[in-house]
Amino acid sequence: MKFDRTLPRALVHRAAVAEVFLTDAVRRGEDEVVLAAQLPRLHAFYDDTLGPHAGHDPMMLLEACRQGIFVVAHRFLDVPLDHKFLLRTVEFEVLDPGPPTPGPFPADVVITTRIEHRARTRSGVTGLRLRFTATAGNREVMTAGIDYSWMPPQRWTRLRTAQRGRLELPAVPIAPPVARIRPGLVGRRDPANAVISPVRATADGGLTARLVPDTSHPVMFDHWVDHVPGMLELEAFRQLAVAAAVRAGVLPAPTARPVALHARFRSFAELDLPVECRTGPVRPGADVECTLRQPGTLVADARVRFAERDPAVPARPHDPMSGTRGGQTAPHALAGSGAGPRAAVHGAGTRL
User: Is residue 39 within 8 Å of residue 100, measured between CB atoms?
Assistant: First the structure.
């Protein structure tokens, strides 16, 4: 496998070359494709954290797999580049000891990809279920599965026009400004990477916040889309869940990373309507349950589980809501044990 240059950015539906993680793709059989990925030493979004971690953010590996679904469809199934894609289901499992550790060189990862199912209509294949196994340094570090489908641009336009028309929204959305939470409260340093508003307590002991639809964000909105991207919704779940777990005393610091995430995407989240993210009560040893809603609509729901403390970093006491940074927090990372916990994202369809 080659790691000396990226695949064409159009092939993975990215605008910035810097956001292309895949470097090669080789078909090894009717149902198998091998992908090569290179994870940067320091990524402005995924590696923006209050403290050191034992490995790269598993969400960055998930993004590499997500880019792979386009490569399989376009390069090996001849799906036209102008087709639109819908994310149906995603699952990932982090394997001990987790994603590779950032070091003096970028991390080379090989991702074996198998086609487990082809969805067919009278027009032919319109979707796939893929299974990914990511290997770094001769170690399997993560497995993932993604179900997705695609449609011609004309059908997509009719779908989105009808949906926004029913909501009496204009053809082109304009996302309203939303105040951000202090980044330290969600384990971030850069304020731009905080994707929820300041939190409020709910009557049942959970937290609620609004999703921040910042269309100028260079990673979450690498290119223009007329809806809230699915990866941004997952990040909102992650950030609100970690804030809730810290407030409840389940986590000592907001630097923990998710090792399990189960979510279902129910509908498009419109940029120009408020998107409320809410958690239920947080209990020790239990997943954090979350929902994402717009007026009258359940957009998505999720359960989030976090990593145990990084064994390479000693834990320290932390004021849960102080937002202290750097060495004042107790960094957590993807430690894992055995086969590692499972994370799954299921849904009737969401955006890529």
Answer: yes
Candidates 338, 156, 177; CA nearest to 259 is: 338
Q: What SS3 state is found at 61?
A: helix
Reply yes or no: is the peptide bond before residue 191 cis, omega within 30 of 0. Answer: no
- 266: number of CA atoms within 13 Å, CB side? 11
Mapping DSSP to helix (H, G, I), strand (E, B) and coil, where does residue 4 land?
Answer: coil
Specify the 3-state DSSP secondary structure of 202. Answer: coil
Of the chain, the end-to-end C-alpha distance in Å amounts to 26
**Pair type for strands 342-347 and 258-265:** parallel
Do the Cβ atoms of 345 and 6 come closer than 8 Å? no
How distant, in Å, are the alpha carbons of 18, 116, 135, 343 from that of 95? Answer: 27, 21, 10, 11
Q: Is 173 within 8 Å of 226 (Cβ atoms)?
A: yes
Q: Are 190 and 182 in contact (CB under 8 A)?
A: no
| Measured distance CA(235)–CA(57) in Å, rounded | 12
Residue 9, sorted as left (phi over 0), alpha (psi -120 to 50) or beta, turns out to be alpha
SS3 of 82-146: CCEEEEEEEEEEECCCCCCCCCCCCEEEEEEEEEEEEEEECCEEEEEEEEEEEEECCEEEEEEEE
Residue 154: beta bridge partners? none
Tens of pLDDT, residue by residue over 107-155, are 999 999 999 999 999 989 999 999 999 999 899 999 898 989 999 999 9
pLDDT in tens, 145-199: 898 999 999 999 999 999 999 999 999 999 999 999 999 999 999 999 999 999 9
Residues written for the chain: 352
Please give the model's pTM, rounded to 2 decimal places. Answer: 0.86
Question: Do the beta carbons of residue 340 and residue 143 sit within 8 Å?
Answer: no
Q: Which amino acid does the sequence have at 273?
A: L
